[in-house]
Every structure is written in C-alpha cells, then in structure tokens.
Amino acid sequence: MKTVRIAVWVAVLLMAGILGWLTLNVTKTKDAVSEGPFGVPFTLVAQNGQPITEQAFRGKPTALFFGFTHCPEVCPTTLFEMNGWLEKVDPEGKKLQAYFVTVDPERDTPEVMNQYVSNVSKRIVGISGAPDKVADVIKGYRVYAKKVPVDESKPDGDYTMDHTASVFLLDAAGRFAGTIAYGENPDTAVKKLENLVSKG
C-alpha cells in the first residue's frame, strides 16, 4: 500500500513538473511572438512604382492604414486626419512615417494610389501590388476586408469594400504598439503618436 502511495505521489509530482514546464514554454512563445515584428514579410509596390517590403516599417515608428481609393468617407477622412497628426507630432518628417495599403488592388494600381494619396498628403505613402500578394498581407496583418456588391442582384457589378478602419501603430522595430480608432478624439490620436515617437 505504501509503495502504491509513493508511486501516486511520484506521478503527481511528475505531472506537476511537466505542466509547469509546458506553461513556461507557452508563456515564452507568446512573449517571443509579441516581441517580434507585427505582420508578415511581403514584396508589394509603392505608389512611385518601386518595390516595397516589410522593411519599410522598420527604423521609425509607423502609422499604418488599410483602405481603398473608392471609399466614400472613412478612407479620405482618415488620410486627411493622419496627415494632420503627422504635421503636428513630427512637422519635419524625421521621426514618424505613415503608409496606406489598399485592400482593393484590382482598382488601386500604384498609379491610382499615387494620384489619390498625393492629393491628400506628401507624408503618407500608398502601397498596392498583385491581388494575391495584397491578400496575403491583409491576412498577415489581421485586417478584415471583404468585397461587397453595390447591387446584390449583380454580384459581378460595381462593388465597395468593408474593411478594418483603425490605424495600426508600429514601433521602430515593426512591433505592434496599438491602434487609433476611426473617429477617435484628435487630441487622443496625437497623444498616442507622441507616445509612439517617444518610445521609438
């Protein structure tokens, strides 16, 4: 009987040790994920027609927005506001950068992005590319984007895009550092960007 009790205790201690080890390793893995750059590697096309990769989101804190040029309200409003925040927080453009990635690459060619973004800001860089590669980036950055027909009876006709409306904030190492919600108080948005710059 005593031998059975000892065996049970040994088994319990062994299980506790295994669970402790597993918990420690899961925690380490989560920490490693949160410490790594946000998103996925990619090669897309900047609005000037040049290749651009995820390395563009390194070296300086980054404000990153996903949208499309046919967007009736959210995207033009957000780009206009982003430009104002950038001018207020970093008027010389040396500490902070911003990008606008299309979720509608079929219509938003680099040329279209260049014309659209340039009308709003000299500080924000538009990004497009092949639809399959853009789709990978959308998924990798955990952005919601869905094509929605304007007329449901004509699924192949004109369409709009439902998409995540928040601005993603990345630190200088490309790590996720928060978001600015659509319609957020301008003072709060500016403060978030100031904090982002101060942390680097």
Characteristics:
5 helices; 200 residues; 7-stranded mixed sheet; two-stranded antiparallel sheet; Glutaredoxin; 2 domains; alpha+beta; 22% strand
Please sum up the structure shown.
The model is unreliable at 4-33 (pLDDT under 50). It is built from five helices and nine strands.
Give an account of the 3D structure:
The chain is α+β, with helices and mostly antiparallel strands and 200 residues long. It folds into 2 domains: 1-33; 43-199, Glutaredoxin, CATH 3.40.30.10. Helices cover 42% and strands 22% of the residues. It has helices spanning 2-35, 74-89, 110-118, 131-140, 186-199; strands at residues 43-46, 51-53, 62-67, 97-102, 124-128, 145-149, 159-163, 167-170, 176-180. A 7-stranded mixed β-sheet has the order 2-1-5-4-3-8-9, with helices on both faces. The longest helix has 34 residues, at 2-35. It is globular. The model is unreliable at 4-33 (pLDDT under 50). It comes from Rhizobium grahamii CCGE 502. Pfam families: SCO1-SenC. The chain crosses the membrane at residues 6-24. Keywords: Copper, Disulfide bond, Membrane, Metal-binding, Transmembrane, Transmembrane helix. This is Sco copper chaperone family protein.
